Structures are given as C-alpha cells and as structure tokens.
Amino acid sequence: GQADTTCHAFVGETVVLPCTTTPPGELIFSQSRLYWQIDKKIVHFFHKGQDSLKDQDKHFHGRTSLFLDQMKHGNLSLKISNVQLLDNAEYICIYKQDEDHQTKKSKIKLSVSAPPRTEEASFPSGQSQIPSRSPTEASHLNLPLLSLHLLVTLGVWHL
Fold first, then answer.
1. Is residue 76 helix, strand or coil?
2. End-to-end alpha-carbon separation of the chain, Å?
3. Domain ranges, ordered by start, for the chain
4. What is the C-alpha separation between 116 and 96, in angstroms, rounded?
5. Long-range contacts of 67-71 (CB under 8 A, 24+ apart)
6. Residue 113: strand pairing partners
7. Strand pairing of 78-80 and 15-17?
8. CATH domain 5-110 topology
9. Among residues 118, 137, 138, which one has the least CA distance to residue 126?
10. What is the mean pLDDT of each run of 10 residues along the chain (159 residues)?
11. Alpha carbon of 105 to those of 8, 42, 72, 143: distances in Å?
12. Positions of the region Disordered (predicted)?
C-alpha cells in the first residue's frame, strides 16, 4: 500500500519519522509495545516503558531515539540521526496495547539524498583566482617564442 507520509533527508542529517496515536488518556507503557520496522527488521523497539534494543538491526545501532517525554501523549515519532543512504526505505510504526489488543499501524517512507555538494559554495572564490593566474600562464607561453626568435636572429647574424 501507499505510505502515509514521505520524509526527505540528506545524508548526515537528523530526520524525524512522524507517528502519532490519539490515546483516550495517557498511554499506559506497562501494557504497550512500539515497533519501528523495515519489513521484519527492527529499527527500534520500545517495551514496558523503555527502549529494548537487543534485537535492533545493527545498521541503526546508536542512531535512533523516541520522544520519551511526549510518548505518553501519543507522539510515537522516531528520530534517526546521521542519516545514511541505506536508511532509504519504508518504515512501519506499529503500536500495540495489550489490554484492548488495539494495534495502530502507519507507514512512513524515508527518501534519502546524497549530501548537497559543498564545493559549489566555494566556487565563486575559486573563479576569481583564474584571471590572476592567466597573465603568468600567458608569459610562459611567450617564452619559447621569444627564445626561438632570439635564436633565429642570432643565427642570421652568424651568416
């Protein structure tokens, strides 16, 4: 199916994949589980009020976090830091509550682009150096011609 949301990020940035649920009151953590997955790969797992990352996919190690202070109000968003090209995928946010077996599921697509090229920013200063360099290059080009000219004139004198 279609993703609910598409997020865009550049390599190296931090991105927040949005996911919210509207709890009747505050979420009861002791009875809830939150999975962030790519297919069957676990990107982040929150269980019984804390992160439970032993089954987390190694690629995401140390780069994911939840908004713990806002979670009880229904903010289940996932923060991924230092985004990599490999993070480009469709993520599923699955929130389960044991009591009423209610499952909330949403799909978020993350589209990752290569970092914006920094060389372009420094280009103007690079350009200004070119004109100052060309006169010296021009004089280098003239040197062989001059020496050739001298040789010819000298040669003529010898005749």
1. coil
2. 93
3. 5-110
4. 38
5. 71/27, 71/29, 71/34, 71/46
6. 10
7. antiparallel
8. Immunoglobulin-like (2.60.40)
9. 118
10. 89 96 82 94 95 96 96 95 97 87 90 79 50 52 59 61
11. 21, 15, 17, 76
12. 114-136
